[in-house]
Structures are given as structure tokens and as C-alpha cells.
Write a structure and sequence with these properties.
By secondary structure, the chain is mainly alpha-helical. 64% of the residues lie in helices and 0% in strands. The chain contains 5 helices and no strands. Helix 2 crosses helix 3, helix 3 packs across helix 4 and helix 4 crosses helix 5. The longest helix has 26 residues. The termini are far apart. The relative contact order is 0.17.
Length: 118
């Protein structure tokens, strides 16, 4: 009965996200510091969370597009982790109004902006 009321009220469209834009901002900021060799041990650990999450989203995108799904972004074939993470961090820093979004949505927006498909 509770499920029925959630569906009827339209709340079923809300997506649960394990990783928020706030977490992405923190962890990708640590990634930038780690690349400059200015990070603490805790920041290095946070940097690996950011890099791993961005790589996971990128790999999922590649798998979906290989199965004839439409492309969301089009990076060069030899793109590096830094070339994926740095634009994500830059996007969050220049669009603080989007930090409430899910980490997934921020990554998609950032990589679409950085690597648009022609």
C-alpha cells in the first residue's frame, strides 16, 4: 500500500544516489591536490574514490555505447584519468549551484561539456 501511494504521488521518480555532488567536490579536490603532490594520506585516499568513480561512469558509458546506445560524450580514444577527472572538478568549481545533483549527473554534464559529440 505504501508503494502504491508513492507511485501515485509521483515520488517514485526520485533517484537514490550513493555518491553526491558534495562528495565528488571533496574527493575530486583531493585528486587535484594529489596530482600536485600536495595531498595528505587521507586526501590521497579520497582522490582514489573520485578517480575510481569517474572511471566507472566512463567505463559504463563505453559499454552502453558499444551496445548501440547513444553517446553522451565523445572523449579521445587515448583519454587519461586526469583528462576525465580534471574537467569534472572544474565543472563543480564553476557551477556550484549544481553541487546538490548526484555525482553521476555532474560527471555526465562535465564530460558532455568537455567532450561534446560532433
Amino acid at each position: 500500500m505504501v508503494l502504491t501511494s508513492l507511485v501515485a504521488s509521483g515520488q517514485s521518480n526520485q533517484v537514490h544516489s550513493f555518491y553526491s555532488g558534495f562528495g565528488l567536490l571533496r574527493d575530486c579536490g583531493s585528486y587535484v591536490l594529489a596530482r600536485k603532490q600536495q595531498a595528505t594520506r587521507a586526501q590521497i585516499e579520497a582522490a582514489t574514490i573520485c578517480a575510481g568513480y569517474v572511471m566507472g561512469i566512463s567505463d559504463a558509458h563505453d559499454e552502453l555505447t558499444a551496445s548501440n546506445q547513444s553517446l553522451l560524450w565523445c572523449p579521445p580514444i587515448d583519454v587519461t584519468v586526469g583528462q576525465l577527472v580534471n574537467p569534472v572538478h572544474r565543472y563543480i568549481m564553476t557551477n556550484p549551484e549544481d553541487v546538490h545533483l548526484s555525482a553521476y549527473k555532474i560527471i555526465v554534464l562535465a564530460l558532455q561539456y568537455t567532450y561534446p559529440c560532433e
